[in-house]
């Protein structure tokens, strides 16, 4: 039970960090170049969460797809 509590705390911390990174990415919508650069960091964190077993592969892929859609929308509005 103690090890489960440690794992749960670690997992919740990582998931919370991912949510925070997404919010920071959304705040960068005024600066598409910085958003593009920061999206690589966010996607990397999603991949790490999958490799650690914290998040299922499908969920991470869906989130990464939404990041790509967000960036595409930013680039279209800037043109």
List the helices and strands and how they pair.
Blueprint: H1 2-27, H2 32-51, H3 57-78
Write a brief structural summary.
The chain has 3 helices and no strands. By secondary structure, the protein is mainly α.
Helix/sheet category: mainly alpha
Distance between the termini: 55 Å
**What percentage of residues falls in helices of 4 or more residues?**
over 70%
Strand count: 0
**What does the largest sheet look like?**
none
Query: Number of folding domains?
Result: 1
Describe the 3D structure:
The protein has about 80 residues and is mainly alpha-helical. It has 3 helices and no strands. The radius of gyration is 14 Å and the shape is elongated.
Sum up the structure in keywords:
mainly alpha, Methane Monooxygenase Hydroxylase, Chain G, domain 1, 3 helices, 86% helix, 0% strand, elongated
């Amino acid at each position: 039970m103690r090890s489960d509590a440690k794992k749960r705390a670690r997992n919740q911390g990582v998931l919370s960090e991912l949510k925070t990174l997404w919010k920071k990415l959304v705040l960068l919508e005024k600066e598409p170049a910085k958003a593009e650069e920061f999206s690589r960091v966010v996607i990397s964190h999603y991949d790490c969460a999958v490799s650690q077993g914290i998040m299922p592969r499908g969920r991470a892929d869906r989130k990464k797809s939404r990041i790509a859609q967000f960036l595409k929308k930013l680039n279209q509005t800037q043109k």
